[in-house]
Design a protein that fits this description.
Blueprint lengths: L3 H17 L15 E6 L3 H18 L2 E6 L4 H7 L7 E4 L1 H9 L3 E2 L17 E2 L2 E14 L21 E5 L6 H13 L10 H11 L3 E5 L2 H9 L3 E7 H11 L3 E4 L5 E11 L4 H12 L1 H9 L4 E2 L8 H4 L6 H4 L2 E2 L3 H4 L3 H12 L1
Helix pairs in contact: 2-10, 6-14
């Protein structure tokens, strides 16, 4: 028969062994489920893919409804709402991610609550946001006008460039990006002040102004630059070029310039919502391989999850895999964004 001391030792050992069999997460109770989560979304194919690949399975698994608000990133609205944001998740670009963080509109993500983060490319992660998919900004060209493909951002402002050119109006991360790249090449370092763009402006006046077919405002007007204005060269993303070439049957192609491409990311962030836990879970669904594959197959949205496998013909039309991702520049948005307005003024003064 066991004495009292032996019995206590045996009981304690059994308790320890039993505890070892319980998953660590079992002790952490999930917070109460909200009736719904709200997030903004880009209308069109992105919204359709989001509903099919992410929202439907999330709602089925959790019972939480997700309200999608088709709109541009509502940073001003979120700032006005303070600690009571309408949105639980903010969908925006890299620059908006930077601004939202500086304004205290978003919070840091918890990797323990989003295990999918471990499979995301490093370039797609920030402390308070993650790219759910992305595309590369580069040069779109008409192969009839360019039998030899363009190779450089400076083909936008070269006296040897054939035909007409289409560029986007200066905005958060398009025209200001390639102007910054040009300034870096001309000056030897990334530009930090408006004066650093002087040489770029002079070059645009000399060689882009007379060739500029249109300054576009969105995807539709960029498409019109090729169909209606007969442009041979444009600044565009790989995913948009692939989709439009497929639809229009125009002989369009895409190239990342030798100086490097620019990552145009669709970034998910959590606002100052009380529903942070469940908002992060929803972001995790966006990062799942099965969801990202649907986006890739239906719109050529490049997956940020490095475990996603897509057919070769699809991979060829987007920035897929580490080797291609390494061609993307890490843009110094912290230097570009504060002087965005002055860069825009340099552009318009140069081409008008």
């Amino acid at each position: 028969m066991l004495d009292r001391r032996s019995l206590l030792k045996l009981t304690a050992a059994g308790a320890i062994a039993a505890a070892a069999l319980v998953p660590a997460s079992a002790g952490a109770a999930e917070p109460p489920k909200p009736a719904k989560l709200t997030m903004n979304v880009y209308a069109g194919p992105f919204e359709a893919n989001m509903r099919k690949a992410v929202i439907a399975p999330f709602e089925a698994d959790t019972g939480i409804k997700v309200e999608l608000v088709p709109s541009a990133p509502p940073l001003a609205k979120l700032q006005a709402q303070g600690a009571s944001p309408e949105l639980d998740i903010l969908i925006a670009g890299i620059v908006e991610n930077l601004i939202a963080g500086q304004q205290g509109l978003i919070v840091k993500l918890d990797p323990d609550n989003i295990p999918e983060l471990k499979d995301i490319y490093d370039i797609a992660k920030t402390p308070d946001g993650v790219a759910v998919n992305f595309s590369a900004l580069g040069l779109a060209y008409d192969k009839r006008q360019w039998p030899t493909p363009p190779t450089s951002w400076f083909d936008l402002a070269s006296d040897k460039t054939p035909g007409k050119i289409v560029v986007r109006q200066p905005d958060a991360q398009n025209t200001v990006a390639w102007m910054a790249i040009m300034a870096k090449e001309l000056n030897g370092a990334w530009p930090e002040k408006p004066e650093d763009y002087k040489k770029v402006g002079e070059l645009l006046t000399k060689n882009l102004k007379s060739r500029l077919a249109a300054i576009t405002t969105n995807t539709a007007t960029t498409r019109a630059g090729f169909t209606n204005a007969g442009a041979g060269l444009a600044v565009w993303t790989d995913s948009q070029v692939a989709a439009f070439a497929e639809e229009s049957k125009l002989p369009l192609a895409f190239v990342i310039p030798k100086e490097g491409g620019v990552m145009i990311a669709t970034t998910a962030m959590v606002t100052r919502t009380p529903n942070k836990y469940w908002a992060e879970k929803l972001i995790g669904y966006m990062l799942r391989p099965e969801a990202q594959k649907i986006f890739a197959l239906n719109g050529y949205y490049a997956p940020s999850n490095k475990t996603v496998v897509v057919p070769d013909d699809v991979a060829a039309k987007m920035v897929y895999g580490q080797a291609k991702i390494d061609t993307l520049l890490r843009m110094p948005w912290d230097k570009i964004t504060p002087i965005n307005q002055q860069i825009s003024e340099t552009f318009y003064e140069a081409v008008n």
